[in-house]
Amino acid sequence: MATTYIRLALDKRRRLKDNSYPIVFKIIHNRVQSTISSGYAVNENNWNDANKIIRRSTNILNKGIVSCDLKLKLTKYTGIINDLHYHNQLDSLNISELIDRL
């Protein structure tokens, strides 16, 4: 049985020119890790690492839209993973094939 997790994370391995970090979807499937870019980036002090969300106190333009978009994508990806599991297809996929399905 495949063990698969997906969550939001701040990719601290890749600092951008404006000193922000990309927000990524971290996927772990059968103990292999990969990421999918969200297309958003924030400074480290604007990221709530405990709750995996953008801090409320930040003054990022369109913060509400960005937060909503991230939650929608996470829900969509989780739904696809659950659907693959329900149809017994998740176990046969490697991490690259899973990401292609997402």
Salient structural properties:
2 helices, alpha+beta, 3-stranded antiparallel beta sheet, 102 residues
Provide a concise account of the structure shown.
With 102 residues, the protein is an alpha+beta fold. It has helices at residues 63-86, 95-101, and strands at 4-10, 21-29, 32-42, 47-48, 53-54. It starts with a strand and ends with a helix.
Describe the structure.
By secondary structure, the protein is of the alpha+beta class. It has one domain (4-101). Helices cover 30% and strands 30% of the residues. It has two helices and five strands, in the order E-E-E-E-E-H-H. The chain has helices spanning 63-86, 95-101, and strands spanning 4-10, 21-29, 32-42, 47-48, 53-54. The strands form two sheets. Strands 1-2-3 form a three-stranded antiparallel β-sheet. Strands 4-5 form a two-stranded antiparallel ribbon. Strand 4 and strand 5 form a beta hairpin. The longest helix has 24 residues, at 63-86. The protein starts with a strand and ends with a helix. The mean pLDDT is 92.
Topology, please?
Blueprint: E1 4-10, E2 21-29, E3 32-42, E4 47-48, E5 53-54, H1 63-86, H2 95-101
Antiparallel strand pairs: 1-2, 2-3, 4-5
User: What is the string of SSEs from the N terminus onward?
Assistant: EEEEEHH
Question: What portion of residues belong to β-strands?
Answer: 25-35%
Shape: elongated
What average pLDDT do the residues reach? 92
* Major β-sheet profile: 3 strands, antiparallel
Note poorly predicted spans.
Answer: none
Measured as a percent range, the helix fraction is 25-40%
In total, how many beta strands? 5
> Which class do the helix and strand fractions yield?
alpha+beta
End-to-end gap: 19 Å
Number of domains: 1
Determine the number of helices (DSSP H or I, runs of at least 4 residues).
Answer: 2
Rg over alpha carbons: 15 Å
| Oligomeric state, counting identical vs distinct chains | single chain
Strand order of the largest sheet: 1-2-3
